Amino acid sequence: MAFYQLIKTQKLPATISEIWDFISAPVNLKEITPEHMGFVVTSNTPAEKMYPGMIITYKVSPLLGIKLNWMTEITHVKDYEYFVDEQRMGPYSLWHHQHKIEPIDGGVLMTDLVTYQPPMGILGALANSLIIKNQLQKIFDYRTVALEKRFGKYIL
Fold first, then answer.
1. What is the pLDDT of residues 123-150, one digit of tens each?
2. Which of 59, 91, 96, 123 gives the lowest tally of CB atoms within 10 Å of its CB?
3. Alpha-carbon distance values, 22 to 28, 70, 82, 95 (Å)
4. Contact in structure between 96 and 84 (CB atoms under 8 Å)
């Protein structure tokens, strides 16, 4: 079965600490997720930093307003450098999302690498080409704008 990748980079005029403190707090996920997706963290997850083994559950409506349960586990964390979340239950057959940050002149380069596989074999591949990849791109485009609103636009 096919799998797909989405790679998104963004430069932000902030410090590593500012970006890390924001992206490593599960409570902030709602702020960078489009409102129409109805994203709600449902686990009793502390607002503090992520740690390896942390389980986070959500309700999300990625398509047609249908509410889905999603569970991810934070599998790897290297403070101020990266963390990885992997789906344990949810809409994908495979979901592996690496969040990486690194210092650059005047700010931080943030890179998201999402490796995913839709369910249902050939039907999932068709759904990816028609809907899923475009929707994921729009979600990450929204995140770009939301992070620029919070931290400013990178200009160098």
1. 999 999 999 999 999 999 999 999 999 9
2. 123
3. 7, 21, 13, 22
4. yes
Residue 18 lies in a domain: yes
Domain containing residue 123: CATH number: 3.30.530.20
> Does 156 fall in a domain?
no
The pairing of beta strand 40-41 with beta strand 4-12: unpaired
Alpha helices in 7-132 (DSSP H): 16-23, 121-127
Residue matched to tokens 């959500």: 58
Q: Give the number of domains in the chain.
A: 1
In which domain, by residue range, is 58 found?
A: 4-151
Per-residue model confidence as pLDDT tens digits over 58-116 = 999 877 778 999 999 999 999 999 999 999 999 999 999 999 999 999 999 999 999 99
